[in-house]
Amino acid sequence: MISNLEEFFQPKQGIFLDTISYKRIENDDVVKGVELSLLCQDNIRVLLEDDGVKVTLTRSVKFEPPELFELVVSYRSLLSFNEKKDEIDWSSINLAEEFRENGAFVTTQLMSRIALLIGEITSSYGQEPLILPPRMVKERK
pTM here? Predict the structure, then answer.
């Protein structure tokens, strides 16, 4: 793992909205008192380019059994390498895992925007907004 990952990139970050998908679910077969589980999944994808990387962070939110809505929000960041780029063979490492573990300098920015947008979108259907923590969900080991 590269604990000083931030040191290989220029401080300037390009951040933009990548995808939004919201589907309201009307289920007439709802049984009162049935417990719903909120499923929240985070995914990180990192594409290596000649001069940097594209980091895309996606959060998917849905209920089990399917009820209320399904929602997917993605943000992307463009990071440019600095003069330290050649110190690491970038094509030989798992970039997604590196950014998941040591990329808070960019993933915090992306996840904060995702959490804010999810709150805004979920407040639009007349209920309390769904406020999720602006941190990536990590797998249990």
Answer: 0.90
